Amino acid sequence: MTGWDEKKDIIVIGSGLAGLAAAIEAAQAGAAVIVIEKMKVTGGNTRISDGGLAAPGNYLQKKHGIADSAELFYEDMLRAGLGLNHPHLVRIVAERAAETIEWTRNELGVRYLDRLDRFGGHSAARCLTTKGHLGADIIKAQTAKLKELGVEIRTRCLLKNFIVDRDGTTVCGINIQANYQFPDEDSGTAKKMGVNRAIILATGGFGNDLAFCRLQLPELDETIHSTNHRGATSEGLVAALRIGALPVHLSWIQMGPWGCPDEKGYGKGARFASYSVFPAGILIDPATGSRFVNEWGDRRHRTEAMLRAGHACFGIVDSIGAEKDSASLKDCLKRGKVKGFQNLADLAAACGIPSSPLSKTFNDYNNAIAAGQPDVFGKPLGPDTPPLKKPPFYAMRLWPKLHYTAGGIGINSKAQVINLQGQPIPRLFAAGEVSGGIHGASRLGSCSLTECLVFGRIAGQAAAAGKHRT
Ligand SMILES: Cc1cc2nc3c(=O)[nH]c(=O)nc-3n(C[C@H](O)[C@H](O)[C@H](O)COP(=O)(O)OP(=O)(O)OC[C@H]3O[C@@H](n4cnc5c(N)ncnc54)[C@H](O)[C@@H]3O)c2cc1C
Prior knowledge:
Layout: E1 6-13, H1 17-28, E2 33-36, H2 44-48, E3 52-54, H3 59-64, H4 70-80, H5 87-106, E4 127-129, H6 136-148, E5 152-154, E6 157-164, E7 171-178, E8 189-201, H7 210-216, H8 235-242, E9 247-248, E10 253-256, H9 269-280, E11 282-284, H10 299-309, E12 313-317, H11 319-322, H12 326-335, E13 338-341, H13 344-351, H14 355-371, E14 393-398, E15 401-405, E16 408-409, E17 416-418, E18 424-430, H15 448-465
Parallel strand pairs: 1-2, 1-8, 2-5, 8-18
Antiparallel strand pairs: 3-4, 6-7, 7-8, 9-16, 10-15, 11-12, 12-14, 13-14, 17-18
Bound molecules: flavin-adenine dinucleotide (FAD).
The site of flavin-adenine dinucleotide (FAD) has 44 residues, from α1, α2, β6, α8 and β15.
């Protein structure tokens, strides 16, 4: 095919974690690569993420003597995913996670906090967090590496459609809108870009595309907000579906139980809830003053329980638990998203919770910890769950928000996009949240960034190894 405005060996679509990892690998393998990005800024959801990466057998676990294994991680992911996960893909993430962390340290110079977190549904403390507590730390390091490799990241460049060869299946280019102004569909100039080797789709999830989410899950209404960046929309995924890519688990849309209805987007409260309230505190239904779920269970269980309650719930933690994330606490208090109280009676009155059931809930919870009894909801009561005794007691409202789209297009273990027959679509690869199947029904916290890096790198290597078109 001729008539290209521009041609490269490989085009990577999307400048998040997966796309940039793919671009680095492809460029290091000698391919001429370009990354296109529709927004003005790079980094997508990765940029605003908490920078948490789960990796069994990582260097910090070794340093702190924490026992863990790829097998345990694999089992955790399958349990949370209700076994819907595509096991061969999960296995790859589990087995390559620790070496991928080393790659970020050695190749990109990413630095991590000297701390490991254990999130709901994980059997071990295995989550590393970047020094700045943001995915942007890795995006910056990847961008610097790409600059060194001479790879252009072209922003405001929207993928519209894939172009296929006369055979009707082999992908050979894309239609784009250059100088695109999100979200104005008529903005920019239409152009055609061709490839000699391959295209890597890394356009992320569609968690901020309520219309598309509702096509999958009609029960979602306008009251449900999203934690995602504005560009987390579905058109990249839809372009791949149009040329025959396999849709996988599109209706498994994950909501985050840590959403604070009193602020927009992800906000500051979500982090405080994840790092302090859920591990060290309790979740209360204000209608009853009681707990109703394992606060450290997987996201799906917690979200479903909250939706069943039917109204915003209160996360409560004491001053010892709040110290786990004192920086977020300070921020949230200043913004009025979290409120502090010297005693439970004042907290109950201010939050509209019946006082005596609330005291009973606290007593039961603290007594179980003191007696070393198992928790009634199955929360692991270990050293991370001190009794809730020391004022001030902090409370915040919580209501689920759209957070992650586990479904996407089907890929195989080489990150090749597969069609409805399970066969690779020639020259088309995908990685990251745009792909589906790895997390099944529910993604465990801190497993996406790991997956994006593992499969981004695989896609970049495999795409570069493809034959040149003649
Ligand atoms: C607030 C928040 C916190 C999170 N924290 C964590 C965490 O700590 N750990 C974890 O594992 N996961 C976390 N996640 C999930 C994780 O951040 C994402 O799943 C992951 O970053 C997705 O990476 P990606 O490369 O697939 O997509 P993204 O990082 O979203 O990048 C995709 C890019 O493609 C661009 N794009 C989309 N469509 C087009 C198009 N048509 N043309 C051109 N460009 C396009 C987008 O604008 C975007 O820049 C979090 C998510 C959110 C929202």
